[in-house]
Structures are given as C-alpha cells and as structure tokens.
Design goal:
The chain is an alpha/beta fold. The protein contains 9 helices and 7 strands. It is globular and about 55 Å long.
C-alpha cells in the first residue's frame, strides 16, 4: 500500500481528516456559512467530507473541491450522488496551487491540508486570490501547546504556539471571527481511530501481503503519538475574514 491508500484506510471511521468531532464541524460550518447560499471552495478536499456536509445542510449552496488524489475524488463523487447533492458539486483533480476559476468564492476551506500549499500563511495567500469581497476562510492547522522536543518537530513539522500563530495571521491581514481548539478528547479520539483502524485491518487480514506493512505503520505512528507529541501538539480551526478587502 502507498501512503494515500494507508491514509484512506486509516480514516475509515473518522472521515473528517482532522481532530474534530461532528459537533465541532457543524458549529464551524454554521459560523462560516451565515447565509446558506454561498459558493464554497475546498483546497485539498480529499473525499470532500466538509463540502458534502455543507451541501446536505444548505440546499442553496454550491461547492467545488480540489485535490490530486483521484481515488478520493471518485469516492466524493459517489457519496455526492448517494446524498443527492452531486449537481451542486464540482471536483477538480489538480494541485491546489494550479487551480483557477472564473469566479470568486464566499468561503474557502483548507482544514488539515495547508501542507499542500506550503504551510499556513502561503495557504492564506492562495485563498486570498480566490476569495470574494466579504468572504471567509475556514482553515485548520497545528500548533505547539508546549515547547516540543526535536523529535516532535521532526515528526510533525515546525509550528508556532497558538498566540504566535494568531499574531502571524493578523499580521498577514486576516481577522479571526470564530475558532475552535480541538479538545484532548478530540485529539485522542482521532489518533486512536486512525491507528486502531489500521491495526484492526492488519489483524483481520493476516494473509494479505500488505498486512505486515500496515501493522508496522500503525504501531510506529501510535508510538510516535504517545511518546513524542501527544502532550505538546494541538490543532486549531479558525474562521477568518480579510481585515481590509
């Protein structure tokens, strides 16, 4: 299995690919979609779970998703057909930085996918080019709750603490109007779900040629979480508006 296939399998029981529970997703979308008839873009949409939830909740909404994973986009399309929202969803298989559109968007999403555009601030800069006047960005990224070890930085990357992260965002011309910091329960549920799902699959398929690889991956990632970053890493999802359009 490649990394894309392993990630897809890991998220079987946690389709939102970030440490957020369903109630948190619902609240954030409510803040991000005040009218309900917005045009929405998700940069790095994966299987488009955020867009599908927004489309099923708001029958006047239109949405577009961008991702390089063909299998995720195919899954998103099939889900959209089953939910009856496929006519209002356009999916594009391309890199997020290569996406172009003749129109602007009222909401731009990028939750847990800022790496696809080079990080938090480059993602906001890319979003600005697609954002309609008065529009909003719903973005989710990690931060350090405590000073990390070098091993944690090596595993997850170089983040700032939350106040410094907000300072960087505001200095770039954005104002937070709502946000959510993932709880310990959300963070733990996400990790247990991902690595437990992989382990379950490996144990249920002992003769599959990929079973040892998947079990090793699950064990390694669970150990990294518990020993390296569980007590230092957090995740914040923010609703942002341009400070001056």
């Amino acid at each position: 299995m490649n990394r894309e296939q392993i990630s897809k399998l890991a998220h079987t029981h946690h389709p939102i690919k970030s440490p957020l529970n369903d109630a948190s997703v619902t609240r954030l979308l409510a803040h991000a979609l005040p009218r309900g008839d917005e045009r929405v873009l998700d940069l790095g949409c994966g299987s488009a779970e955020w867009l599908l939830r927004a489309l099923t909740t708001h029958p006047e909404l239109r949405a577009e998703g961008v991702d390089i994973a063909k299998s995720d986009l195919a899954e998103a399309r099939q889900k959209a057909i089953r939910l009856g929202v496929e006519p209002r969803l356009d999916l594009h298989c391309c890199k997020a930085e290569d996406f172009t559109s003749p129109h602007r968007f009222d909401l731009i999403l990028c939750v847990g996918s800022t790496h696809a555009l080079g990080g938090l601030l480059p993602t906001l800069e890319a979003a600005r080019a697609h954002l309609a006047p008065g529009g909003r960005v719903l973005i989710g990224d990690g931060f350090w709750e405590r000073t990390p070890t070098p091993e944690a930085v090596e595993v997850l990357g170089d983040f700032a603490d939350l106040p410094t992260t907000i300072d960087h965002i505001t200095a770039a011309g954005w104002t937070p109007v709502q946000g959510h910091t993932s709880t310990r329960q959300e963070l733990d549920d996400y990790e247990w779900s991902n690595w437990g799902t992989l382990a379950d699959w490996a144990l249920d398929h002992p003769t599959h040629p990929d079973s040892p690889q998947v079990l090793t991956w699950a064990t390694t990632r669970r150990t990294e979480w518990l020993r390296t970053y569980r007590n230092t890493w957090g995740f914040a999802t923010l609703v942002l508006r341009r400070t001056a359009d």
